[in-house]
Write a structure and sequence with these properties.
The complex is a heterodimer of chains A (296) and B (240). By secondary structure, chain A is mainly alpha-helical. Chain A is built from eleven helices and four strands, in the order ββααααββααααααα. Chain A has one domain. In chain A, a hairpin with a 4-residue loop joins β3 and β4. Chain B has a domain of 167 residues: 3-Layer(aba) Sandwich (Rossmann fold). With 240 residues, chain B is α/β, with parallel strands linked by helices. Classes of the chains: A mainly alpha (296), B alpha/beta (240). At the A-B interface, α6 and α7 of A face α2 of B. Chain B: Belongs to the ABC transporter superfamily.
């Protein structure tokens, strides 16, 4: 068996792939958190719970309505996005003038409630969600075996991430968003309905989390705690990448996933802490994050 | 020259306007009017309430009372975006150029609120510098270019009433002249302009009338052709 750096090549590439998959989820989630923090000034602790909700919506659709993976990939994000819009309209929007802490407390409480409800109803053992038939099996690439579904997850999330990048950085709607992040008051005085923009931004960002949840369902099983496990790492990634840049969130998410994968290969003991180590180093050297700008 | 009193034809009519930031009561019953096509300045010392007057017209203060009508329509209860959509555009003192947008995005940012706005080509004729800097980030521009961008971008929208807050502040004399020239051209095109100015020599070259603001209300009105005879009074108001 070929070895690379003293490790069997299939093991190394296997961990790299796993890292890329985790990184895909990190990227999708940290992107949404960055959009929400930029626009709403809210640290959205409910993001993990909404990611989990996305997975559960897909599972409900399949088990109660017989609606499969592909429609769920569209429907579940819509459901989660609509739910997010209701949360924003009825609760979050009342907190914008207050300190960050209130938004954080509200969303943290919401996360506990949402997770608690699912946990109460479905336990924590996890519900299986089948891989869609078109994506079963895998390819032998010579140096490693690539399960088709996992390849799809990486490709799909990269497409959605860059779609989001395009939306924010290259369209009129994105220009409104970026301008509103800098100076909401003035953007509003130009005739743009900023409260509506904020509602849409929140709905869109949590829909991304819902989308990630559907992608994750066949890999991790559908489990009320799946968001909790992920969200702390995602917050660390947001800190590392900084909040100024969409591209930064994507690159940092994927990069940290890969770093984690490599750490698992070469020094498994550190794989759970390496993210936080990097976060500490970044905070010490570049407090605004790798891609962030100081906020005015 | 139209006297401010009476008449149903004023474009903007402000009556008994009060504005508050938290506990602070900033405007204390300000009253004035602007007719369509006029250039009117608000003169006054720092802190007299000139900027707050503009922001109150736009709905950008925490709380306001009184009456602000545009073409007879009451604006006092509308949100800033609704007010903008009625055809008022605001150019803030700090210019408000967005750093994360390039010059073209800054220029195209304010949505069209009414028909009849200027085309981008016409704006480039007024401000040729902007055309060469379209891909630059908004804040890479010089102060003068930023001011031109800040004025240029509100001309596209079709708004007929422009609120300009100290457009000449901190700019070199040659740029101040250029901005003055632009304001004259805008008046000739039929824009109505409410201008906040510290520099009343500059204001006297453009304006039809001047309102003097003191302690959050309009205390005097001076037609521009009678500026010279009122110089003594004005120096006293402005403390210069």
């Amino acid at each position: 068996m070929t070895e690379l750096l003293g490790v069997p090549a299939p093991v190394l590439f296997g961990q790299l792939l796993l890292g890329l998959i985790n990184g895909s989820f990190y990227a999708l989630l940290s992107l949404g958190l960055a959009v929400i923090f930029g626009m709403l000034n809210v640290i959205n602790f409910a993001h993990g719970a909404l990611y989990m909700t996305g997975a559960f919506v897909a599972w409900f659709l399949l088990n109660y309505l017989g609606i499969g993976y592909w429609p769920a990939l569209i429907l579940a994000p819509l459901v989660v996005g609509a739910f997010g819009i209701v949360l924003e309209k009825t609760m979050l929007s009342r907190l914008y003038k207050l300190d960050h802490l209130y938004g954080l407390l509200l969303t943290f409480g919401l996360a506990l409630i949402i997770e608690g409800l699912f946990r109460n109803a479905y336990g924590v053992s996890g519900q299986p969600y089948p891989i869609p038939s078109a994506l079963q099996g895998g390819q032998n690439l010579g140096f490693m075996f690539l399960p088709t579904y996992r390849g799809w997850v990486v490709v799909a999330s990269i497409i959605v991430c860059f779609g989001t990048w395009f939306l924010v950085e290259r369209t009129r709607f994105g220009a409104y968003l970026r301008a509103a992040v800098e100076n909401q008051e003035l953007v509003r005085a130009f005739g743009i309905n900023v409260p509506l923009l904020m509602t849409l931004a929140y709905g869109f960002a949590v829909a991304l989390a819902g989308f990630a949840g559907v992608l994750a369902a066949p890999i991790y099983q559908v489990n009320p705690l799946m968001g909790q496990d992920l969200i702390i790492v995602v917050f660390a990634i947001v800190v590392i990448g900084g909040l100024g840049s969409i591209l930064g969130s994507i690159v940092t998410g994927l990069g940290i996933g890969v770093v984690e994968g490599l750490t698992k290969t070469f020094y498994p003991e550190a794989s759970a802490t390496v993210v936080f180590l990097i976060m500490a180093i970044v905070l010490a050297l570049r407090p605004h994050g790798l891609f962030g700008r100081p906020r005015a | 020259m139209p006297e401010a009193a009476g008449g149903g034809e004023a474009l903007l009519r402000v009556k008994d306007l009060h504005a508050f930031y938290g506990e602070s009561h900033i405007l204390h019953g300000s009253e004035f009017e602007i007719d369509a096509g006029e250039v009117v300045t608000l003169l006054g010392r720092n802190g007299a309430g000139k900027t707050t007057t503009l922001k109150s017209i736009m709905g950008m203060v925490e709380q306001r009372q009184g009456s602000i009508t545009l073409d007879g329509t009451e604006l006092i209860r509308l949100s800033p975006d609704r007010i903008a959509r009625r055809g008022i555009a605001y150019c803030p003192e700090e210019r408000g150029i967005f750093a994360s947008l390039d010059v073209e995005e800054n220029l195209m940012l304010p949505p069209t609120v009414q028909s009849g706005g200027m085309s981008v080509q016409e704006i480039f004729q007024l401000f040729p510098n902007l055309k060469e800097r379209l891909r630059s980030s908004g804040t890479q521009l010089s102060g003068g270019e930023q001011q031109m961008l800040a004025i240029g971008r509100i001309l596209r929208t079709g708004a007929k009433l422009l609120l300009l807050d100290e457009p000449t502040e901190g700019l070199a004399p040659v740029i101040v002249q250029q901005i003055g020239e632009v304001i004259r051209k805008l008046k000739a095109k039929g824009f109505t302009i409410l201008l906040v100015e510290q520099n009343f020599h500059f204001a006297s070259t453009l304006a039809d009338r001047h309102y003097v603001v003191e302690h959050g209300r309009v205390v005097d009105e001076i037609p521009n052709e009678r500026l010279q005879e009122n110089m003594g009074k004005l120096h006293e108001y402005l403390g210069v």
